[in-house]
Backbone:
């Protein structure tokens, strides 16, 4: 983790080299906003995930409809919560983090996540690891950067107790069944006690989190919870509830 002095120096250099504009909308950021990479307007466009939620996976549920997202999850993964939907602005922030090298956008992401229920102490944050190949290519693990940003806000400890045993295919274009098979047995965990909270950028089906939770449980952790910045897709049934018919 960077020291406070070094972090402040890097931020000052960054702002000296670059114009004070939002990373997402490119509009100027006023001095009153402090030193964010994402302006307050863009952050206000991040759409929070609201109740009622499935108690386990955090997916919004309709009254009387059984949640099907987490019914086949391993028992070790007991609670997952996400801060916002992966709409256009949130998706752009994730893209900037993962593919454009803008790891300090995690500060704005962590701010949106800081009050998620799994983060109530005492817990230990454990980022989802990258494969060695992808880590070399990207230069950093976006989930580890996100966990570090969360730790600064919540004062929770971070543990690098989880390791990826093998490279896996990118999950984006895979079916739920393919996602599960892709990450099965992909992780190994060091001995860790107590409740741990996995940290990742985006929740899609929970396959990666489930595999990681199983590895942590086998190493003595329990229970295992998880938080992510964004959730990939709002169910169509819920989208229809937000559609207003104009006369």
Residues:
């Amino acid at each position: 983790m960077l020291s406070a002095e070094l972090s402040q120096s890097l931020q000052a250099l960054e702002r000296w080299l670059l114009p004070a504009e939002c990373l997402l909308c490119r509009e100027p950021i006023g001095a009153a906003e402090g030193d964010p990479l994402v302006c307050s307007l863009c952050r206000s466009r991040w759409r929070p995930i609201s109740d009622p939620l499935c108690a386990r996976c955090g997916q919004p549920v309709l009254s009387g409809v059984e949640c099907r997202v987490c019914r086949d999850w391993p028992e070790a993964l007991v609670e997952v919560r996400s801060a916002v939907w992966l709409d256009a602005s949130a998706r752009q922030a994730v893209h900037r983090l993962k593919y454009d090298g803008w790891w300090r956008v995690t500060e704005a992401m962590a701010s949106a996540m800081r009050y998620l229920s799994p983060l109530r102490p005492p817990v230990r944050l454990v980022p989802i690891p990258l494969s060695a190949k992808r880590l070399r290519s990207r230069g950093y693990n976006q989930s580890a950067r996100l966990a570090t940003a969360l730790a600064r806000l919540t004062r929770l400890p971070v543990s690098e107790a989880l390791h990826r045993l093998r490279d896996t295919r990118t999950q984006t274009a895979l079916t739920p069944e393919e996602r599960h098979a892709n990450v099965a047995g992909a992780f190994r965990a060091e001995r860790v006690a107590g409740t741990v909270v996995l940290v990742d950028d985006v929740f899609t089906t929970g396959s990666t989190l489930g595999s990681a939770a199983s590895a942590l449980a086998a190493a003595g952790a329990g229970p295992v919870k998880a938080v992510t910045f964004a959730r990939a897709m709002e169910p169509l049934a819920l989208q229809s509830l937000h559609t207003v018919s104009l006369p």
Notes: The first strand starts at residue 77 and ends at 85. Strands lie at 77-85, 124-127, 162-164, 187-189, 196-203, 224-231. The CA atoms of residues 11 and 35 lie 8 Å apart.
